[in-house]
Amino acid sequence: MYLICGVIVLFVAIVCVIFMVRAYRAGLAIGMDRTKMKRTITASATFAVLPSVGILLGVIALSGSLGTPLPWLRLSVIGALHYETQVAQGAAEAIGLSGLSAAEMTAEAFTTIALVMSLCIMWGMVFSIFFNKKYLKRLGSPKSAKTGGAAGFGDTAMTAMFIGLVSAYIGSYIGGFISGGSGGLLGFGGSWLPLAVVLVSGAVMAVFIWLAEKKKAAWVESFSIAGSMIIAMATAVIINGFVS
């Protein structure tokens, strides 16, 4: 597993380096200032460090039940934390597990979870092969530029998807807390801890947005997701420590 995943991650990393080198050479070819490009590279690398902490946290969270190679591969190449966690949890519950528990994990369960995670996320790549060229033409059309066109619809659809996803999780936690049962999308039924984490992470994100919009500190946007996750997780640990 380490060898298979390592080869794939290495291949993707090499492709990234190739694109970076070609982009740098293309910039020089069209007359861009060498100093500005180096400054841009340094700034991009710096601002990429903290947001990537969120990805690392996702790998750590999933590795407890799925091992290190698969989460490392998924979140290094094409996966997203909210997607991987939700799909893995849904697949685990569908085959009779109480959740993503290492104690209950079997070879059959791991195979099923990995298959579901892979099949569900592959369609973005497949659709891009057949429809991306047409989509790019629509983005470049004068009508699309004036009305927002396909890009406007894409932004709206993505926002609606995240609102639905967040609502499903919060609603599940509220229902589990009120009923006092064992339900909940991540097995936190009857507990108020997830609701406290939601409030803390929402408050922290609001602070980041306020700083970016009101204080003109646009650079904090690069750290908003990772910062909210880290502070909310730390709050969960502190609350759990006091309660237990």
Brief characterization of the structure:
By secondary structure, this protein is mainly alpha-helical. The protein contains ten helices and no strands.
Keywords:
single chain; 244 residues; mainly alpha
Number of strands: 0
β-strand amount: under 5%
> Element order, helices and strands?
HHHHHHHHHH
Q: Percentage of helical residues?
A: over 70%
Structural class: mainly alpha
Unreliable stretches (pLDDT < 50, length at least 5) are 182-189
Number of helices: 10
| Shape call | globular
Radius of gyration, in angstroms, nearest whole number: 21 Å
The average pLDDT value, as a whole number, equals 81
Major sheet details: none
Intertermini distance: 37 Å
Structure description:
By secondary structure, this protein is an all-alpha fold. 80% of the residues lie in helices and 0% in strands. It has ten helices and no strands. It has helices at 2-29, 34-66, 69-77, 81-94, 107-121, 123-140, 142-147, 149-179, 193-214, 224-243. α9 runs antiparallel to α10 (224-243). It is globular. The protein starts with a helix and ends with a helix. Residues 182-189 have low confidence and may be disordered.
Secondary-structure map with pairings?
Elements: H1 2-29, H2 34-66, H3 69-77, H4 81-94, H5 107-121, H6 123-140, H7 142-147, H8 149-179, H9 193-214, H10 224-243
